[in-house]
Please model this.
Amino acid sequence: MRWTKLNERYRPAVALARLILQSTAFDFENDGPSRGSTLLVNMDRVFEELVGHGMRRALAPVGFTVDLQHRTSLDHEKRIGIRPDIVVRKGAEIVAVADLKNKRTGAISPGDVYQAIGYATRFDLPEVALIYPEPPPYNELTVSAVRVHLLCVDISLPPAEREQAIIHTATQLVAAYRS
Model:
């Protein structure tokens, strides 16, 4: 194939297609080594992209903006960097913060809760959320004056149902905001 300005944009897709086609079968009949390729998908990133962009689409029509991977500092001296996955604004005001956790929820990680409380403290919010791909063992917990909501978006659902789950979770996320 000859690459030109007209088709250059397809080069990565063609390379991926070739990789997949070359790796669809292994030769286990012959003795000796077999060669193959792997395709690694960062499922944490997939979860963050699906849910984050879905939240953005769900909340935009009702006047909220959603920042994804919002970089800021935990402390006033700007020594400790933080990056919440989802920051929801109404105008300039930050009204909700959530972190996405692509992990099993048999037991909620204390580190995840500490992180959420750090976000709530930094943004002076009484509530914050952790969002998982499966239902958590309980809906919320309260630490001092901070309520941590444990929410779920099942990304294994068919697209239309997944979009409805994202809309439902987005609604829960901003429910505490009073306009």
